[in-house]
Every structure is written in C-alpha cells, then in structure tokens.
Design goal:
The chain has 182 residues and is mostly helical. The chain is built from nine helices and three strands; from the N terminus they run H-H-H-H-H-H-H-H-E-H-E-E. A three-stranded antiparallel β-sheet has the order 1-2-3.
Length: 182
C-alpha cells in the first residue's frame, strides 16, 4: 500500500506540474514536480491513498458488497463458508473491470464515458483494453493446447500429457512449459 501511495503521489505531482503550465523539457518542471510530490495538497494525498487502497484490493466495498459482508457476518453457516469477503470481492471487481463487462458497473461506465474526468477515462479504457487483450491471449493459448490447467482426471489423458511433457497449470513459452501456479 505504501509503495502504491508513493507512486500515485508521484503521478499526481507530475500531472499537477503539467497543469501549472510547465514542460518536462524545462529544468523548473522537475524541481516543481519534486516539491509537489514531497508536499502534496490534501486532495492529492486523498487521491493517492484511494489509489493505494484500490491497488491492494482494500478499497471500500459498494452497497452490494456491504450487503454481502453483512449477510456473511450475520449468518453462522455463511461465515464458515465465506470467512473472508472484502479482498475477494475487490479482486472479482478488479477482474471484471479488465473486461468489456466493466460497462455493466455504473462507476466504471462513468469513467469510460468520461464523466469522472480524462485521467479516469484513460485509465478505465486502458485497463479494459489491456485486460481483454491479455485474457484473449490466454484463451487462445488454452484453445490451442499451449496453456493448461490441472492434470486431467482421466488416466489415459494424463498419460498423454506426460508423454507430451505438459505440466499442470502451465503455459508453453519458447518450447518450455512455464508454471503459472507459483
């Protein structure tokens, strides 16, 4: 969280210096950016903290997330089945924000359409495009047998995997199976 906050403060200072009309080609730009990053305004600090919490999946849950937490805390069976909910819910949200399904979320839709400002719009679109591209790559690899999950339950299929040198939970890179389960 601390590293994320620092990185967000640096980004806020850079944007703030640009807004003041200075150019990165000028020597004063870097001095001013350094001053802003070391002495951020309260708004800059709040945005940096919010970014750090989001980056570590500890940001506040929305109304449905709060309802789910309340349900699991008040239900003894659900509490045993779902002992943790805050970070897993934020992980699920971060996952769908990296897909076209992000448009279904009102907050992401507002960011994508530019209602939350240009920076939020750029980040939302970049997250959605990059996430979709990475997911499409892995789906393509899996459909062509170059990315695999757990060993098959069928003994014959498992033997075929062993003969082909396939490792469970791995992807074929440059002729070698690399585990993504570490």
């Amino acid at each position: 969280k601390i590293l994320g906050e620092r990185a967000a403060l640096e980004a806020e200072a850079y944007r703030g210096t640009i807004k003041e009309g200075l150019s990165p080609a000028e020597g004063d730009f870097w001095r001013r950016r350094s001053e802003l990053s070391e002495n951020p305004t309260s708004d800059m600090r709040e945005r940096a903290i919010a970014s750090a919490y989001k980056g570590t999946f500890m940001n506040e849950l929305g109304p449905r997330g709060h309802d789910w937490q309340k349900f699991t805390k008040n239900n003894a069976v659900a509490r045993w089945i779902f002992p943790f909910s805050h970070i897993p819910i934020n992980l699920m949200k971060a996952t769908y924000e990296a897909t076209p399904f992000a448009l279904m979320d009102s907050e992401m839709r507002a960011s994508i359409t530019g209602k939350n400002g240009g920076v939020a719009q750029d980040r939302a679109i970049a997250r959605m495009v990059a996430g979709s591209a990475i997911m499409a790559y892995f789906v393509h690899q899996a459909m062509n047998g170059r990315a695999v999950g757990d060993y098959p339950h069928d003994p014959d299929e498992r033997d075929r995997w062993k003969l082909q040198g396939k490792q469970p939970n791995s992807i074929l890179v440059g002729g070698y199976w690399v585990s993504f389960n570490k």
